[in-house]
Structure formats: C-alpha cells, structure tokens
Task: structure prediction
Amino acid sequence: MDGVLPGGYWGVDGRLHRDFELAALTGRDEELMARADGVGSAALVTEVLSRCVQRLGGISPVTPEVARELLVADRHFLLLRLRSAAFGDQVRASLLCPWPGCGERVSLEFSLADVPVVEASQRSFLHTVTLSSEALGESDPVSADVTFRLPNGSDQEELSELLALNEAEALTRLLSRCIRRIGPYEPPGEQRIADLSPRARSEIEECMEQLAPKVEQTVEVTCAACTRTFLVPLDIQRFFFGDLRTDASLLYREVHHLAFHYHWSEREIMEMTRDKRRTYINVLTDVLEVQNCGA
Ligand SMILES: [Zn+2]
Result:
C-alpha cells in the first residue's frame, strides 16, 4: 500500500517527506494492540505506525521518533489506511437518533475512502502569525510576530492525560511546546508564553487550526424516521483500536487452528498478514467440511 500524507514530515535534511509505503498489519501487530493498556493511546499509535510505515519519502526505516513527530492529521490518515487494508473500506454502525421525540435506531454506513481530507495549505515546518493590536494589549509591539510549529504525535503523547484533567492547562502546555519565537525572543521562554493574552492565544490557536492538514472526524447522518440530520463524532484512534480489540481472543483461536492443522509455529503464523491468515482459515474450513461430509 502506498499513498501521500496530507501534511508531511520535515526531515533533518530540511526536506518534506510525504509519500509513504505501508505494510499490512500482521498477527504480531494485532496482538500488540489487543494487549496494550489504554485503548488507542497516542503512544500506541506511535508504536503501530513505526512498525507498519515501511518508508516515508526518503526515510526508511521509520523509527518511533519519526512516527511520534508526524502531524496529528497525518497519523490519523495512516490509521485509516491501515484500517481499510485490514477490514475494508466500509464502516457499519447502528445508533439512536438524538433528536427529541425521535430516538429511533439509525443504521450508519459509509466508506473510509469518502472521509474528507484537507491537505496542509502552507508547506513549511514553521509558521508565523502577526497578532492583532487587541491581542497585544499592553505588551511590547515588537512581540507581534509569533512563530510556531504545528501539533504532532509527541504533543498528544505528552498532553493527553492532562487534557482529560484540565483542558486550559493542556492548551497552555501545547502552546509552550509549539511556539518557537515571539518577536525577537527565540526561544520565548515559559513566562512570555504564559503572559500571552487570551485573545492572543485564540488567534494563535485559530491560525494553527487553519494551517494544519485535516482528516474529518465527524460524519453527518440522516435519520430515516424523522429525516433530520445529526453529526456523529468519529474518534479515529478509538475506532481503529476498537475494531482490533474485539478480535483479540479470535486471533488466538485462529493461531491455534492453523498451528493444529498445518503444524506451523506460532511465530510463523503471527508474522502473516491478517489477509493471509484468513485465507488459510477459509481453505481449512472448506477442506474440513469436505472431510466431514465424506465421513
Ligand atoms: Zn430521528
């Protein structure tokens, strides 16, 4: 599988690496995800991506350090591609219509290929926003230009716990990780970032949001009963790992089944892709059925 990231990774060579090659998940990867604590944690995404992304532009192998520094949307994009390869493009779910007076069951079906993706609008590692005079307030006008990088997987790894406890504090930490320069001050130091006015913070956050590539994380659904529409959040990390988690015990049963009949080692079976494993299971099922009928 190959493709092109909506954002891309700026290598130490100063070049943007966007095209990638992905290997399908093997039994080992599925086992790792099934056994990990914390469904879909950012650290687990980093590990899975470093195992499955074989090449990124001129970078190969893709180390966990590189996978960690991929932009948030690029990581989501890769998870969607891995999911498509393992389970197919179609997603089916059933939920209840949230509109008052309705509450009917709605079945949802969509293709991952249709999830909207927006590419980065400015190809650059660092970006600069000029704060408005309202945002600057009393601060020194030389501090109007703020230079930052976009949030990546390392920020998710560092801040996801804090985000659940204290969203405002997590945003402050995110800004202090991403802002590289305020006016002539490089690095700006914790205090200058803490002193940014609420207006300045929201202008910086808005600019980050506009510049970052995006993978849509909501799906619009129309209720067949009341014909009204509503938005369903698609938490890509949870969704991706949720699919695999339900299959943990099935994975071990499949390994047992193949080992029992083919006498392959556990290691050999776990290194197969899911597709290949399933193909052998199907062949085996056909053969066993024929034998049972003949008996
Ligand atoms: Zn409804």
Notes: The first strand starts at residue 2 and ends at 10. Residues 127-212 form one domain. The first helix runs from residue 27 to 35. The CA atoms of residues 77 and 215 lie 7 Å apart.
